[in-house]
Specification:
eight-stranded mixed sheet; binds thiamine diphosphate; 38% helix; globular; alpha/beta; 11 helices; Rossmann fold; binds magnesium ion
């Protein structure tokens, strides 16, 4: 055990992820928490592509690749099959999808899985764009980020819409929801263990940086993830039975500029846009505090 994390590597090194890939680290931590009695269902995306270049695999657990849109449907089937075979006990079913797969193209299957109550933990690797196919904007891409389908030009300053509030959408299904970050592995692994201990669906959204897509130095991924937490642009919280609990709160809020300025995808932003992003982050953080305080639920 190092820092409370298992030393067993169930997503082995030697795969083809880019240097500094946050998604590889996130998956590695998730697997450390899940342990070897786990079946993984992986949607199409960077994680699937870099970890399984045929005929090799970096996975040391049973692993199924579906299509881009149906990881949750396959995981639902695995859950039922284990039940019918009398093998459901002590086996974890994990479904993995990127933000494009989760927020957009696989959302229907995910919502169905949650509504039917399958015993599956769904993990969304949120790198805020369709990275595997060349950095296209997704429903998770933040406002003003430049992507190949929301380029920053003279008239349009990157993506013009805000990201979907996906954790709240999933919480509306009445399931366990948590956000986590590669900068805080103990918090991340605790949440995965908790999700897997629940007899029913759960959803975890992990903030993971992408040096290629976000245009940051490859060694800055953890610092950026830390700043995402400290600026409140990606708060860490859980929603259980509809009640919000913020996992930890920054002692002193860091201005959003500190986060934005390390990433080339935001380099075109002027004072006006930065002010707007700051106000939006502040308003969402205030709302989260209110939700926690009032225990209003979903
Ligand atoms: C129905 C369908 N549409 C589009 C694609 C092409 N495609 C494969 S992976 C991918 C992007 C994946 O993005 P995301 O889910 O965010 O994962 P990431 O690569 O960023 O980890 C796309 C668009 C596909 N395989 N199937
Ligand atoms: Mg993505």
């Amino acid at each position: 055990m190092i820092l409370g994390l298992s030393e067993e590597e169930l997503l082995e090194f030697g795969h083809n992820a880019c240097a500094g890939c946050g998604e590889a680290l996130a998956a590695r931590y998730v697997m450390k928490a899940a342990g070897k009695n786990t079946i993984v269902v992986n949607a199409t995306g960077c994680l699937e592509v870099f970890s399984t270049p045929y005929p090799q695999t970096a996975w040391k657990v049973p692993w199924i690749h579906g299509a881009f849109e149906n990881a949750s449907a396959i995981a639902s089937g695995v859950d039922i099959a284990l039940e019918k075979l009398g093998k459901r006990k002590n086996v974890n079913v994990l479904a993995f999808g990127g933000d494009g797969s989760t927020f957009d193209i696989g959302f229907q299957a995910l919502s169905g899985m949650a509504e039917r109550g399958h015993n599956v933990c769904y993990v969304c690797y949120d790198n805020e764009a369709y990275m595997n196919t060349g950095i296209q904007r997704s429903g998770a891409t933040p406002k003003y980020a430049a992507t190949t389908t929301s380029p920053a030009g003279k008239k349009v300053p990157g993506k013009t819409e805000y990201a979907k509030p996906m954790p709240f959408i999933m919480a509306s299904h009445g399931i366990y929801v948590a956000t986590a970050s590669i900068a805080y592995p103990q918090d991340l692994t605790r949440k995965v263990k908790k999700a897997l201990s629940i007899d029913g669906p759960s959803y975890i959204q992990i903030f993971n940086s992408c040096p290629l897509g976000w245009k940051h130095k490859f060694n800055l991924g953890i610092k950026i993830a830390e700043l995402a937490y400290k600026t409140n642009i990606f708060p860490l919280y859980e929603i259980e039975k509809g009640i919000v609990t913020i996992s930890k709160k920054p002692v002193q809020k860091t201005p959003i500029l500190e986060y934005l300025k390390l990433q080339g995808r935001f380099k075109h932003l002027g004072e006006k846009e930065i002010k707007e992003v700051q106000e939006s982050v502040d308003a969402k953080w205030e709302k989260l505090l209110k939700l926690e305080e009032t225990k209003m639920g979903f």
